[in-house]
Fold this sequence. Notes:
This protein is α+β, with helices and mostly antiparallel strands. It contains 13 helices and 21 strands. It has helices at residues 3-16, 33-43, 89-101, 123-128, 158-164, 183-196, 200-212, 253-256, 262-273, 287-294, 366-380, 388-409, 415-422; strands at 48-55, 58-69, 72-75, 82-83, 233-237, 240-244, 259-260, 298-299, 317-319, 324-328, 331-340, 343-350, 355-361, 442-446, 450-457, 460-465, 472-479, 482-487, 496-502, 508-515, 530-531.
Amino acid sequence: MTPILRTLFLLLLAVASVPGDLLAQTAGAPPDLDAYVGRALKTFEVPGMALAIVKDDAVVAAKGYGVRKLGDPTLVDSKTLFGIASNTKVFTTTALGLLVEEGKIKWDDPVIRYLPWFQMWDPYVTRELTIRDLLVHRSGLGLGAGDLLWWPPSTYNRKEIARRLRYVRPVTSFRSAYAYDNVLYLVAGEVIETVSGQSWEDFVDKRILNKVGMTTSSVRHSAATAGGNIAATHARIDGKVRPIAPFDSDNTNPAGGINSNAQDMAKWLQVLLKQGQLPDSSRLFGAATWRQLTTIVTPVPIGIVPLELAALRPNFSGYALGLGVRDYRGRKVITHTGGLPGYVSRVLIIPEERLGVAVLTNQESEEAYDSIAYRIVDHYLGLPAADWIAAFDKVRAGRLAETTTTEKKAPVARPAETAAKKAPGARETISKPPLPVERYAGTYIDEWYGEMVITAEKGLITIRFSKTPALTGDLVHYQHDTFIARWKNRELRADAYVTFGFRPDGSIEQVKMQAVSSKTDFSYDFQDLLFRPPPRP
């Protein structure tokens, strides 16, 4: 065990043994909750976590576990902020619901009624795309399409990103398939601003957070860098969990910008479980809006579930307005997850049981938040205490082994160099590109992303995405006409193959890209890029 992990383990044991900010055992919380959470954090190497539980309108738990940052003994408490990422989406749909209640928009109004400048690639979709369609992942765009316009942080502003969607080609027909996206929530934020006269941030802060009482939460990704009682972001880099830089671009706040904590998320769960009713018996939103937020619009395919997690396989699954809807052991579950660099989370409610759970973490382990959330759910359903930690850990180990095997079959090292090293007594040779490196230099344009520049100097080739400062790296020859872009910022974990195509005269006609690893986040939609040199004079 490394010194860092040993320190983390001791801190977790200490936290599990002392009273939390708020843990009402008399309200029926799992009696072994602290010990179980401590074990989950240790197993999945998560430094810190915020937990909120609401049952029968009462806050059962609102507390922190672990530490804000590895190497720093400062503990997470009930007010420590975490990025909730895509759990923000329901706040955006709620904001639209408030505008519907005021008669300013309708769910099935065309988007171009409010944003006449907005276009999708297909003119038919441009005409027919509704406010509802912005929220339910059925536009025809592929998984994460267009995310490179904002991820990693780009210099495009929100309107520029929305305008560039006209050049992103669909992968399915309109309203025919589910494919999760973020960029259309950015467009939804533009609708809110246009109709209300307030920025998305101001509207959500004043009309939702303040009324719910979420007074310590914030509405901007950039708040994660503001200091104070904020959990640091962590991820596994080169096999070790360590702090990483938080995502700090505010372009996509409507899709994932809220930072919150255990106390505030408990208040949000209470409002959701009471279908929009606030503590003073007034309403944040009405019953009709609640039905809209929680009614499935887009069916979600049910994939294969590992044997160890068979109980989690739903009989139905779909996406409503900023919320997923599925079943678990005969109960309807309304839920969503969130993921950013160094933050992942789960929010879950079971209306029939008047139960709500929120788990926010500062490390990229879905296994941690789900093993805790479902242990809590099983407790309130009166089920035997399943060891979800062991089950998720076994599945994780299997997936890691499978990924390792796949990556070994498709090595990212240069083949000629690898072969030379393996051949006893062979002369060292390095795979070389078929053209002099200077021939690859130039400016290339993708119609939806924009400009990418390749430079060559002293035999070294550099690639740089002009609007995305973090996407700068070395082009290392792989084989034939393919290179690997090795980004200088290794926290990106998104190296990509770069393949050149040529005209008959030997000049470069196009450049395509593809992520090297299957573990690369889907928001790195390199596969959708097609760079070309500017038109010849």
